Amino acid sequence: MTTTQGSGDIRLVDVSKQFGSSYAVKNVNLTIPHGSYCCLLGPSGCGKTTILRMIAGHETPSAGEIFIGDQMVVGKRPVERGTAMMFQSYALFPHLSILDNVAFYLKMRDVGKTERRERAREMLARVQLEHLKDRMPAQLSGGQQQRVALARSLITNPKVLLLDEPLSALDEFLRLKMREELKRLQNDLGITFVHVTHTQPEAIALADMVVVMDTGRIDQADTANMIFNEPETPYVARFMGGQNVLSGTVASRAADLVRVRAASGALYEARPDKAAKVPAEGAPVSLAVRRDRIALSPRAEGGPVVNAVSGVVEATEYQGTYVKVTIATEDGSIFVANVSDDAYFASPVDTGDAVTARFRPEHLHFLSKVDTGAAGDPYLDAH
Amino acid sequence: MTPSSTNRSGWAAYLQVAPLTLVLICFFAVPVALVVIVSFFRYQMLVGIVPTFTVKNYVDLFTNPTTWTLYASTLKFTLIVLVVTFVLGFWIAYFLVFHIRNLVTAIGLFLVCTVPFWTSNIIRMISWRPVLGREGLINSALQNAGITSQPIDWLLYSDFSVVVAYVHLFTLFMIVPIFNSMARIDKALLEAAIDAGASRFGVIWEVVLPLSKTGIALGALFVVTLVMGDFFVVTVMSGGLSGSATSGIFNDLQFLNYPRAAANAVILLITVLLIAAGIFRLVDVRKELVR
Fold first, then answer.
1. Is residue B3 part of a domain?
2. B153–A contact, CB cutoff 8 A
3. Any transmembrane segments, and where (chain B) (predicted)?
């Protein structure tokens, strides 16, 4: 393959998209560096596909500007943008053979029949499907169709490859295999990949940059590690699935220890790192603690306990390397502890047992937004 | 499954298709067979049908130049109407399916297409007279605007008015199947084509048109059979100046010459079947319908 021309960094500046009176995307600002693997992550209806389609040029923003490289691309056709899109349904032309599907772009550029078939064959060989070149799309399996779609996108020699939920139609085994292949391909080609998904592990495994979206806006855009370990908002903390969110008001703050008093009367002590923004005394605050940083013990009797949540075990789920223990707390919320299998089987707990979950001050992480428990957040109630 | 139950389910299957088979036999196979048989009978003036085998009816028809003229005229109309209804039907269906984003609006506009069918054939045809006639809407408008000084004669009672009436009557039969085919095209295919650099025309030519083939073939079949089978529209709208293959049959029937009418009908049937076979050769409708 020839080297790609120009830079594939993408900038969205105050981009909004309105359908009728409702916003699918509102005032989004985002910069995706050239050659990175970026995952747009969020539940369905959060606007992630709309952003992808606006970058691709299949949707025009109601307001704002989109740059690819140093070119303002709003109003430009997809080929002029240097983007190629891989559709969720693969969108292979059902009336054309695999070879002609891949050669379609070349045909549109008036490349002669022999040459375009030759180049399409080379591209099919890249995705190891040369032997199927004369088949029709309906005769291929889902995984093969996807490779054809990939070949058809790559033959345009794009600066940016846009993937709309590329793995969602595959079974688990193929999904993992294809995931690795996509990552390797992105490494080989060195172009920008923008990948829309609603699956957290997929985003974490693939992305250099994860963009977590909530209804029409970006909650956090960062490396997978930062998103997972240091979520900024309660929404991100919950959506990524690995965190418990606790709320209260700041009772006292010192340089290395902040005390937070919960509505239930429980006291949390946290050691904020330098970067964390700790609100003033008396202000409401939310904290997150990772599920796997929690120790369980039988219910403690007696006086007040710091950094502990008590409740009744609602469910236990064996996950191989750890056990997921769901606890219904005294104030009616849900708290989840992922206990390593060694620790769990050393002192097992069962449904209905009264337990106390404890965590260490340095594992409490300050969120920049207070948990409002607002409706419209579909992940608030998800355990 | 045991052999006996296989047997029983086999019988059940025959039983299930029996009603339709009976209907087809009684109302299709038997009448067609009768027509074919009668076409080989002899016709004798004042006596009527004489049941002796003869090919005279066919020889008569093939040696009569009127037959050839009527068929040539019918085929000419068929071809013109086919082209016009295809162009109209394709663009109207394309507009309805791909340009109207709102489904309710699309269905509403689709219903508007059927408005002409709320009145009878005859009224729809006759309503063209005040439009196309010598003193009609178009002629008076042209004259009042000073574009023409004389009324244009070829608007009514001409091939032109026949084509106008056919197009008016039959375009919907083209729109419906094409609309149906197009509605099943995944919109992502159009975007994929644009993504691969296809122009608007390229998308239509390379993607929409090939994927609407089934609808076009079915629509063409409707239009061909309707135009080939018509004698009423052509007689009324041409003022009796033009005829169609079916007019020949009608004339024979009026003279009670049933054998020749039957022979004429068989020839017409074979012609239409040949055209249909041609259409099906171009598009494998059955395969596409199962898809």
1. no
2. no
3. 12-41, 77-96, 103-123, 160-179, 216-241, 261-283
Q: Look at B196 and A89 and tell me if their CB atoms are within 8 Å.
A: no
Nearest to A234 by CA among A370, A381, A376: A370
What is the nearest CA distance from B203 to chain A, expressed in angstroms?
10
The total number of residues shown for chain B amounts to: 291
Provide the token pair at B72. Answer: 């040539």
- The pTM score is 0.80
Query: Can you give the residue ranges of every domain in chain A?
Result: 10-226, 230-366
Tens digit of pLDDT for each residue in A310-357?
888 988 988 888 999 999 888 778 889 998 888 888 888 888 888 888
Q: How far is A220 from chain B (nearest CA, A)?
A: 29
Place of tokens 């006086």: A303
Residue from the list A78, A94, A95 with its beta carbon closest to the beta carbon of B194: A78
Residues A102-132: tens digit of each pLDDT:
999 999 999 999 999 999 999 999 888 889 9
Within a domain: B36: no
Q: B196 and A91: CB-CB below 8 Å? A: no
Give the number of domains in chain B.
1
> What is the Cα–Cα distance from A229 to B97, expressed in whole angstroms?
48
ipTM here: 0.80
Residue A151 has pLDDT above 90, yes or no: yes
The answer to whether the Cβ–Cβ distance between A77 and B207 falls below 8 Å is: no
Token reading at B111:
């219903």
Question: Could you tell me if B135 lies within 8 Å of chain A, comparing CB atoms?
Answer: no
Per CB-CB distance under 8 Å, the chain A contacts of B193 are 93, 104, 108
Which single residue is written with the structure tokens 């009603």? Answer: B19
Tokens of B194: 């644009």
Topology of the domain covering A230-366? OB fold (Dihydrolipoamide Acetyltransferase, E2P) (2.40.50)
Residues 163-202 of B with CB under 8 A from A: 186, 188-189, 191-199, 202
Tens digit of each residue's pLDDT (9 = 90 or more) over A360-370: 888 888 888 88
Residue A243 pLDDT greater than 60, yes or no: yes
Q: Which residue of A has its CA nearest to B291?
A: A138
List beta partners, residue A195: A39, A163
Q: Does the pLDDT of residue B156 top 90, yes or no?
A: no
- Name the average pLDDT for chain A: 86
Residues of A in contact with B207 (CB under 8 A): 93
Q: In chain B, which residues have their Cβ closer than 8 Å to the Cβ of A88?
A: 188
C-alpha torsion sign, points A336, A340, A346, A351: positive
pLDDT digits (tens, 9 = 90+) for B179-197: 999 988 999 999 999 999 8
Chain A contact present for B211, CB below 8 A: yes
Check CB contact under 8 Å for B196 and A156: yes
Using the structure block, give the residue that is written with the tokens 């009264």: A354
Residue of A146, A145, A215 whose CA lies nearest to A179? A146
Q: Using an 8 Å Cβ cutoff, are A322 and A344 in contact?
A: yes
**Dist. CA B173–CA B222, nearest whole Å:** 6
What is the residue range of B112's domain?
A: 61-290
How many Cβ atoms from other residues are within 10 Å of residue B289's Cβ?
Answer: 10
